[in-house]
Structures are given as structure tokens and as C-alpha cells.
Amino acid sequence: MHDLNELNTLSSRFRGFYPVVIDIETAGFDPRTNALLEIAAVTLKMDNHGWLGKDKILHFHVKPFPGLLLHPDALAFNGIDPCNPLRGAVCESEALHEIFQLVRQGVQVNGCNRAIMVAHNATFDLNFMQAAVERASLKRNPFHPFVTFDTAALSGLVLGQTVLAKACLTAGIPFDNAQAHSALYDTIQTADLFCELVNRWKRLGGWPLVDRE
């Protein structure tokens, strides 16, 4: 039998993984040739009763890495003007360093082994992050290199929806399309969605697992 307090931890709930919600806005679809323009991260916490919620938030506007392409259609879609001096943008390495520092602290405090990315259509965000990590020559990436929690797939299973806005609305989470495609807004909405999916499974009796000994 497991102690209930032991089960109500991020480490026990996610097999030693520390889930961190990420959203990245870009200037195209190719992580090798198109610039990363915005990144946000939301860490998660679990209360003593096993309910998952948002914890800390980081958000950065990012300067396009020199030589990478800015696709006009992508900029029109997300509404980002990379040349706007009011963006307060930082370089990729600075944004990643700050996020990774927060994530490593969370991994340690929560007794986890490593972080795992939570994202909507997570392969896209993971590929852009890994390309930026390579450009910045960062040696200590706290995220698992290929395992993710994809809220598009999870929402398709639980809610019958795969689009972020529709999944949120189906789950009872308000969604403002006017704010969509901002990394900060989309990350917060994805975090709320992931927490709802995990907590809904708990409310339905799916967690903690029943010992069958």
C-alpha cells in the first residue's frame, strides 16, 4: 500500500517527471531555419490532496537569432513584430537560461528526476526548444529529450477536441481568441487545460491507482 501523502506529489503522480508547460511562438515551421520569437513557461504544483494547479510563470520576447528566417505569413498569424523596440526582447540563450534555472529548482524541490514538457502539439515546441538549445550551446537541458505530455492528444481522448481553444471551452475554461497566439496567454491556457485533464481523471476515480494486492 502507498501512503496517500506520498501519492499526492508531482514525483509520484508523473513517474519522477516534473511537468512544465511551454508555449513557443515562431516565425515559421522549421526549427532549423525559422526564428524563435517568444517563449513562456508555467511550472505546476500539487496540493496535499493531490490536486494539480499552476505555480510560477516566466515569459520572454526573444530576439531573432542572426541569420534565421522570418516568414511573413507566420508573423501575420501571430501578430508579432520582431523589429518593435518596445518588445523588450532578450536573446535565446538568456531566455532559456532563466527558464532552465527555474525548472531545475523545481525538479530538485519536488524530488523529481527531470522535467517533461507539457505543450499543445508538443513536438513543435520541443523541436524549436532543442534547436535553440543547440544554438546557445547549453549543456544542461533539464527537459527529457523526446518524452512529452501533449495536451492535444490528451484532449482528443478526454474531450473529443484537439484544437486548444475548443478543448478549453469544452472543459469549461474561458478562451479569448483575441489573446491567442501570445506565448504567455497560450501557455496559461494550456496549463489550465492540463490541470483540468489530470484533476478530472482524479475526480472520476482514476487516481490514485487502486492496489490490487
From TrEMBL:
It is an enzyme of class 3 (hydrolase). The keyword Ion transport does not apply. The active site is at H181 (proton donor/acceptor). Pfam families: RNase_T. Its EC number is 3.1.13.-. One of its GO terms (cellular component) is cytosol. Binds two Mg(2+) per subunit. The active form of the enzyme binds two Mg(2+) ions in its active site. The first Mg(2+) forms only one salt bridge with the protein. Residues 18-203 form the Exonuclease domain. GO terms for molecular function: 3'-5' exonuclease activity; magnesium ion binding; nucleic acid binding; RNA exonuclease activity, producing 5'-phosphomonoesters. This is Ribonuclease T. The gene is rnt.
